[in-house]
């Protein structure tokens, strides 16, 4: 009687498979998933864009409509009725550069928070690295940000703005701080929203309040005049969104010809710590927020399927 055939021994990944990034099913690269799974990330971005504009007549034109309406309402209410344009040269550029920054913050934060619950069928039925969902929401927000940025640049050029190295550095710093900070908040919000659906409503409130607690509609000199020298003034300055909005102002408004001319006689048009202010504090706070959000997301992701 012949001996039964032995089962082939299970083996681990070979050196070649390890070199090619071999992973067992159900495992992922953690916070590096957006880099290692670029193809899947691109598919999710395309899916979100198609779903968002399915049945829409205007499509991407809506990327212009919301900021345009915001700008017109705020400009008429604050610039014309409250006469803020008299004390702020090129107020239209000042206002729109802040609106663009806050809109990007709101879209990334809101979409990332809803990314897990909004993709519940994918999260609960098949395996996909969960980090791809908030990251794809961030990329979609950047797609909508680009048309607004083009309008802002054109508007600034019409007011005599000339691109410079200082403007480029301020814009890049502001964008990096904004994306790192908001993605940290977004991943934290996504993890909490999977368990508590009330979180997305709090996010909407935060975005609304952030518009008024940042120097978007008014100049920061007005805040310093009201609460300068107090702990509230320092807290206001350390708000990462305040730092980002001020960097966008430096990039597109502060060094326009009308502003430079008026600033020679009106020191209130200058900004604390010009030209880049507290960028280092904003970057540090953004990095800490990103790490905290990533850690909470990583620890929560295995419960997403059950919670959904």
Q: Could you write a compact summary of the structure shown?
A:
The chain has 308 residues and is an all-alpha fold. Helix content is 70%, strand content 0%.
User: Segments where pLDDT lies below 50 for 5+ residues?
Assistant: 6-10, 16-21
Straight-line distance between termini? 55 Å
Task: Count every helix, treating DSSP H or I runs of 4 or more residues as helices.
Answer: 17
**Total beta-strand segments:** 0
Strand content: under 5%
- Radius of gyration, in Å, reads 23 Å
- Helix % is 55-70%
Mean pLDDT across residues? 83
| H-E string | HHHHHHHHHHHHHHHHH
Largest sheet: none
Basic shape: globular
Structural class: mainly alpha
Please indicate the count of domains.
1
Organism: Brachybacterium hainanense
Subcellular location: Cell inner membrane; Cell membrane
Family: Belongs to the ABC-2 integral membrane protein family.
Main location: membrane
